[in-house]
UniProtKB/TrEMBL annotation, chains A, B:
Protein name: Isopentenyl phosphate kinase
Family affiliation: Belongs to the isopentenyl phosphate kinase family.
Gene3D superfamilies: Acetylglutamate kinase-like (3.40.1160.10)
Binding site for ATP: K3, L4, G5, G6, S7, G209, K213
Enzyme Commission numbers on file: 2.7.4.26
Catalytic activity: isopentenyl phosphate + ATP = isopentenyl diphosphate + ADP
Source lineage: Archaea, Methanobacteriati, Methanobacteriota, Stenosarchaea group, Halobacteria
Pfam families, per the entry: AA_kinase (PF00696)
GO biological process, one term: terpenoid biosynthetic process
Signal peptide residue numbers: none
Length: 246, 246
């Protein structure tokens, strides 16, 4: 499973602007890995919202827990993310990656207890057929709250468990988790390893700062890593890159 | 549950052309019914493929049982239907209908036995939030066959059962099931009622001619009707219109 960070595939400074070269680089890496047979058990891609989803979400005051039942908010957020998803798919298709969309809003929801339900039978069937399912940070219908945000990171952890992913990679704008001196931490096996570095500084990023990413990846059975775009080929080839979280 | 036939909302003679006035008429009827409180338990809309999906499907030789694993075929068919769905949603939004998309390819699949799996928890959650879910004839990942077609009619019968629909209406280009003299048959309670009229003449329409529609509607617990666009307001108001199938 490969997560393409929203900051990687979009220009976060400018509303609804792709980072075309980064996206093309990612698509080419996936295409090469597929051509070399490195992904014989299939690949699921999840991308973030970057400059497409986030500003609409904050404009309408919608978070992972604060919902909306206003159709205008729903269409702004979901519409922007569908647009980004079409761009991502089209760049993947240009490189002959058999990518297919899975719109989270079409299949997932949260129940009264806030528990996420995201059936994965359709994703298994897509993988068996040789397709590369592409999901993204989106909104989901939520009991008693209208629709709330689901982050790309939440999708990754849910899907990694449900699909029994072998490996999980988060392609980020940084080369891994950085220590006080800016060096990449090789390996994290418990949150205490990095508590002093990450602290709670990013707790305000509702869809998951680095501390949140590390916490959720630690809970996964599958080995995970956080790495920069320069390491995407190595990750897809099966190599250890960036920060390994196990 | 309201099905808008593909021939109603598109111009079937011209590839990828909307029937704008018919779609606007349908959207206005839904908006009025919502405003009048006639749909307090919610409404699910399903639309057909008309001139958007069908020609791509036949060009690529894809049917409800003959699948494809070619990404070009998948993106042609699914892409055209996503485009039609965006048009339908946008006309509904213009009339203030809180319509939200549910892309069948994102959530449904067929297993090895050909059985359709289409979870509906997300649709229930959307209805509870006051949204109007809109689905459409599409493709679905299919075990051992890549992707096959799912017709709007198949979606309607599956969803009517799964959601426990109170009433099902098929808005068609004809005012109902017609007898030998062109008069609307008021009521059908078994296929023998209309065997002589419908016969097997439309058996070649893979996504469901009138005979197929009548057969599947007879199997539903919910009362169903087939009617023309001129009766859509009456149907939504709860009146008996066109041909009732019980």
């Amino acid at each position: 499973m490969l997560k393409l960070g929203g900051s990687v595939v979009t220009d976060k400074e400018r509303p609804e602007t792709l980072d075309g070269p980064a996206l093309e680089r990612s698509a080419a890496a996936v295409a090469s890995a597929l051509a070399e047979g490195a992904l014989e058990d299939g690949l699921v891609i999840v991308h973030g919202g970057g400059s497409f989803g986030h500003h609409h979400a904050s404009e309408h005051g919608v978070t992972t827990t604060e919902g909306t039942d206003e159709i205008g908010a729903v269409t702004d957020i979901h519409g922007a993310m569908e647009t980004l998803n079409r761009f991502v798919l089209s760049r993947l298709h240009e490189q002959d990656v058999p990518a297919v969309p899975v719109h989270p809003f079409s299949t997932a929801y949260r129940d009264e207890a806030g528990t996420l339900h995201l059936p994965t039978g359709q994703i298994d069937a897509m993988l068996e057929a040789g397709f590369v399912p592409v999901l993204y940070g989106d909104i989901v219908a939520t009991a008693e709250s209208g629709a709330t945000i689901i982050s790309g990171d939440e999708l990754v952890t849910h899907l990694a468990r449900a699909l029994g992913a072998d490996r999980v990679g988060l392609c980020s704008t940084v080369p891994g988790v950085l220590d006080e001196d800016g060096a990449v931490v090789d390996r994290i096996t418990s949150f205490e390893d990095v508590d002093a570095i990450l602290g709670e500084s990013e707790a305000t990023d509702v869809t998951g700062g680095m501390a949140g990413k590390v916490r959720t990846l630690l809970e996964l059975e599958a080995p995970a890593s956080i790495f920069g775009l320069e390491s995407i080929d190595s990750f897809l080839a099966g190599d250890a890159v960036g920060t390994s979280i196990e």
